[in-house]
Specification:
The structure is a homodimer. Helix content of chain A is 40%, strand content 18%. The first copy, chain A, is an alpha/beta fold.
Chain lengths: 328, 328
């Protein structure tokens, strides 16, 4: 089985690569080749028992998607995207990469022909939804009314994925990822950054800024859960999806206050005391339009699983990023 | 007020043109110019008290959308589309006209700049929805899961319309038209053609073929109601829409049996007896995935109105197409 990862240099792409290299197989089939693509050259994994190739490029450039499809990978993980904040700041770049890039990929696969019909796992986002929301959570038949250009581009990607699948050009599945928490690495400027920052920075002995009130509620899953979603989606019998190819992934609905209480239970008062509340009206405004909770019934029935409580999400971070050690 | 109609040569485009010429104004403002565009040259209306221009072209051709936007019309009715059957038969043409054409139009408006922000009235369709449906009708928050490429392209158009409106590039409103019944003119090969044919052909003294069972239920509005939707959408205060720019239009949910009973009441047994049942399994299969009824609460609250019973739909046809005369 030949696997292609688009967006392989990102956080999820790197973790997916690591996992595939470690497993050596996907859904019961041995991996025979792995191709890694991103706008910056992905790091080549070492000690790999199958051939790997890395390349860098712009998915929306002429010929790039054709080159990738010509290798006829059996599974394509399409994780490549301009993120929410950048797609909002640079309207043209967001549409070029997130919409045109996705469409060019699907077109390249369609035009490759000769019975080529790969599994395409597309990472969508809960940003396809926009307020107002039902009070009891967003169910599987709620409409997609994005309030960002990024969410618009992801919702369009879902529609294309479904139509190209219905036509038999690809075997697509879209997974709407929750906000990934705890993101490893440095703080970034994303409006959602604080959800991870208030856990990650204290666990690394640093102060964290909380720009919103503790009553803010949001929908989370760990990076480990996200990788499990991707692997499960790649191996799933898509007959069970029918024509509705995109699924809201399970997650955990918690308030910021519940996040902090969980940190206190896992790591103690001193660590939790490193969070400093400093309201930011702009971030408070942005976060107000975000989804608080979902009912991910379809995905759960199909075997997708996320964490059950926020302490588990913190423990995943400690295990996967801090070598299991909670600082005293 | 300068008005541009894209798709002006189609049935709805011609009726809209007639109505605008007759009214001389739109939403209280006098019409100062009317531009008519289609792939075939639209007929120029006669006896018009304001300048009219007609042109033919392909909206997806380079420069065409820019040329149209350069005239800076205040209102753009975007009715141009490859219809459902053709978009399904010709995948590339459907995406080129219905997706690229719409996007190029929006881009041309965006790039015209200098505060240009026209009202764009986009005709979407109930084809954005796909079975299975809720038994009590499709409400305003039901997700769009089209089962045709045409429906996919319309759903993408809705998303673009909302994002370009949110960004302030246009002031857009999308209206999801019911199946238009009774369509005037010759029978066509659309799978939905019989809904009109079983009324129109008998009223013109001809036999009509009914390819499905009388229990088939569907969602209808007259051409006159469709024109009223377009005019109301062009003049509506879009502040009431918020970010959700597309609306399911009101309509009438009736079975084929109810259509026939209404025809019998309006025109008598002899006319109704001109319908011959000749089952067509292919059409029966297609129609099975279509929506049967909607709850168009938002549009109704905003003042959109359709017919209340099928006899009224038949009478509209008799008045508008047969000069009010029911054949004996």
């Amino acid at each position: 089985m030949h696997i292609l990862i688009l967006g392989a240099a990102g956080m999820i792409g790197r973790k997916l690569t690591e996992r595939l290299v470690r497993d050596g197989r996907l859904g019961g089939s041995p991996i025979t080749a792995l191709s890694l693509f991103d706008v910056a050259l992905p790091e080549a994994p070492t000690g790999v028992p199958f051939p790997t190739a890395t390349s860098a490029g712009d998915l929306s450039s002429p010929g790039e998607a054709e080159r990738l499809a010509a290798e006829r990978p059996d599974v394509i993980f399409h994780l490549a995207a301009i993120v929410s904040g950048e797609a909002e700041a640079d309207f043209e770049k967001g549409y070029r990469i997130n919409l045109d890039g996705t469409r060019l990929l699907l077109e390249a696969v369609r035009l490759a022909g000769q019975g080529y019909r790969p599994r395409v796992v597309f990472t969508s986002s809960i940003a396809v939804f926009g307020a107002p929301f039902p009070a009891d959570g967003i169910g599987d038949t709620f409409h997609t009314t994005p309030l960002t250009s990024y969410g618009t581009q992801k919702a369009i990607g879902e529609l294309l994925l479904a139509d190209y699948s219905r036509r038999g050009f690809i075997d697509g599945i879209g997974i709407r990822l929750p906000t990934i928490c705890v993101r490893p690495g440095k703080p970034n400027k994303a409006a959602s950054g604080f959800f991870s920052g208030i856990i990650r920075e204290p666990l690394n002995g640093q102060e964290a800024i909380l720009p919103v009130s503790e009553s803010v509620r949001h929908w989370h899953a760990s990076p480990r859960a996200a990788i499990a979603f991707l692997l499960h989606a790649a191996a799933l019998d898509t007959a069970a999806l029918g024509a509705r190819r995109s699924l809201t992934m399970p997650g955990l609905s918690v308030t910021v206050g519940e996040q902090i209480a969980a940190l206190r239970r896992v790591a103690g008062d001193r660590i939790a005391g490193l969070i400093r509340h400093q309201p930011d009206p702009i971030i408070e405004g942005i976060v107000q339009g975000w989804a608080e909770r979902f009912r991910a019934d379809r995905a759960e029935a199909l075997g997708f699983e996320a964490e059950r409580d926020f302490e588990e999400i913190i423990r995943v971070y400690v295990e996967d990023e801090l070598g299991g050690r909670i600082p005293a």
